[in-house]
Amino acid sequence: MTLKTVLLGACSALALAGIFSTAASAETLTIATVNNGDMVRMQGLTSEFTKANPDIQINWVTLEENVLRERVTTDIATKGGQYDILTIGNYEVPIWAKQGWLLELNKLGDKYDANDLLPSIRGGLTINSKLYAAPFYGESAMIMYRKDLFDKAGLKMPENPTWDFIGDAARKITDRKEGVNGICLRGKAGWGENMAFITALANSFGGRWFDEKWNAQFDQPEWKAALTYYVNIMKDAGPQGASSNGFNENLTLFQQGKCGMWMDATVAASFVSNPKDSKVADKVGYAIFPVKEGMTNHGNWLWSWNLAVPASSKKADSAQKFISWATSKEYTQLVASKEGWANVPPGTRTSLYENADYKKAAAFAEPTLAAMKAADITKPTVKPVPYTGGQFVAIPEFQAIGTNVGQLFSAVIAGQSTVDDALTAAQTATSREMKRAGYPK
User: Fold this and answer.
1) What is the pLDDT of residue 164?
2) How far apart are CA 115 and CA 117, in angstroms?
3) What is the CATH T-level fold of the domain 141-299+374-436, as seen in this structure?
């Protein structure tokens, strides 16, 4: 054996030892996230992060929205420590931060530019001037509709559509023989599923969850009018099995050309207009969320999916490094280079809506920003209320109460109950839970 062979062998052994040593010492972050399109895309790009950070590996736990909420809530409340990064909404962030369940994000790096975050989004994630979650994407709600079907029916979407117009249009463009439903709306039970839409609808009808003394309001005429409208339009113009449809199910129906209209999160716009996935990509128009005749409240919600670090994590520094990458302007540029500007995560940064390339590629950019600006979670309803929140009520008890009411209302869509029975049950159950929780406080 020559000296050269010995040296080459030694170098190879050292190189292999280095690889195995890096692998052995790599820190693994477990991230719980929702199975929405933007998050799925983020997982596909994770190799870009681990390539730059070989000492960090990622373990993804991807869950349906209701399941995600249940699991992360249980884990953080019991300090289970299963996850190092949580995907949570702006409903949970202030409540959990005040409980001491989240760590402050104070190591995002000098280049992060937190001041570029949209003020309305950043404000919902900040407690006592401290940021407790970083927004991955932000959204409001708007109408997505088929311009070709409207033209065929001789309809023109108004600049400020009313619920009466939407109901009439949905019925006119329904074509059961062709498999086209006039409208697709959330029916799947959950405080963040069907109740997101129904609460926004009720807000625009003048309804409210509670009066100023925290009394439940499901026995009021505004709720009956809103829920009756919802049930009737779903019966006349909605898809079969709607009680099982949430955001992702309706997205698929719209992309397949089976929905004439869809009222949901603005973030869906990039998916319905993407010709790779949507058969109707070139036929989609956008409009602001409807109002009730004589009302001024559009019921727009304001939501963000955010990345946060639970206090139980032992890997906070690495977790913040990943969060900084995934919610940065550089990540936006990465998605644009791989998927095009129309597919970058929307609704979080001012700079995105000042970007000429984005505005040129995304016809929905201006409608999205207008919808987000129209949302006012401090005044979610027409009448005075003691709470904030658009499509939710920002109190800890709402998660359980909202889920229960969502189940009652979903049963009406499934034909298992009536509007009157569901409202009576919602009034009784909600009043009982609020009294048990000690309201008014």
Assistant:
1) 97
2) 5
3) D-Maltodextrin-Binding Protein; domain 2 (3.40.190)
C-alpha distance across the termini of the chain, in Å: 84
pLDDT value for 25: 66
* C-alpha dihedral (79, 83, 88, 93), degrees to nearest 10: 40
- How many C-beta neighbours within 10 Å does residue 324 have? 19
Concatenating the DSSP letter of every residue in 374-424 gives H--TTS-SSS--S---SSS--STTHHHHHHHHHHHHHHHHTTSS-HHHHHH
**CATH code 3.40.50.620 for 11-138+303-361:** no
Domains of the chain, by residue range, sit at: 11-138+303-361, 141-299+374-436
**Looking at the chain, how many residues does it have?**
441
Dihedral sign, Cα of residue 29, residue 268, residue 345, residue 51: positive
Contacts of 355 (CB under 8 A, 6+ apart): 341
8-state DSSP, 129: T
Closest by CA position to 327, among listed 305, 353, 311:
305
How many CA atoms lie less than 13 Å away from 101 in the CB half-sphere? 22
Cis peptide leading into residue 440 (ω within 30°): yes
| Beta strands at 141-146 and 134-139: parallel, antiparallel or unpaired | unpaired
**Of 205, 322, 196, 210, the residue nearest 250 (C-alpha):** 196
278 SS3 class: coil
pLDDT score of 77 more than 60: yes
With 0.90 as the threshold, say if the pTM is over it.
Answer: no
The single-letter DSSP state of residue 281 is G
What sign results for the dihedral spanned by CA atoms 337, 341, 345, 350?
Answer: positive
Per-residue tokens: 40:
């799925």
pLDDT above 60 for 15 = no
The dihedral built from the CA positions of residue 221, 223, 227 and 230, taken in this order, carries a sign that is positive
Domains 11-138+303-361 and 141-299+374-436 alike in fold: yes
Buried b (16+ CB within 10 A) or exposed e, 141-161: bbbbbbbbbbeebebebeeeb
Distances (CA, A) of 283 to 151, 159, 278: 11, 18, 10
Q: What percent of the chain has pLDDT over 70?
A: 94
DSSP single-letter state for residue 100: T
